[in-house]
Amino acid sequence: MRLQKYLAHAGICSRRKAEEHILNGRVKVNHQIVTEFGTKIDPEKDKVFFNGQPVILKQKSPKIYIALNKPEGYVTSCSQQKTKIILDLIDIDERVYPVGRLDKNSKGLVLLINDGDLHNKLSHPSFNHEKEYIVTTIHPISETALKNMAQGMVIDKVKTRKANVKRISKNKFNIILKQGRNRQIRKMVGKTGNKVDVLKRIRMANINLENLKEGKWRYLTSKEIKQLTQ
Asked: Nearest-CA neighbor of 39 among 62, 61, 7?
């Protein structure tokens, strides 16, 4: 088993975060620091340590898939000091991890799961799953601005992918992205000379926010899980 997968299955962190910990020298195998991502271990024979503490592979826990309606003011993180995190809203014993990010000042749909393979799939840029948002701007948004966002804009020296953009009202529009760069929508709106007032995510892949109240969560249905994992 790969070392980062072992750490994820043991409930230490997500697989991607485990890669960071390995790179930073925080993981030992048989008391030797390991910094290579491809390292494989034998869970029956090798001893793994994280921050000096032994990591024990837990018995396989049931897979959990949750949809949460994140309010503004919460950080999409599993641990952060002196601020509210989305796990504060989830009252379950099992550890789950957010898929992707939704910045502190944004709200709407966040998926939280403990399925490491699916988390890795949904987080990888090549998956191309859609993310849909409703955006309200401070000032009326022009047709030219909407067209430019739909065709792609240069943000942080890289052009964004084409997006599906539809006007809702003079200062509100719907946008569907197939990528999730840091604060992408806010930066795109900023390049048009406007500013985001409210940013709400209403869909990720086949999972819709629908009537889920702000700050509340629900388990995904078996049908939703099947479609998401196909």
From this structure: 7
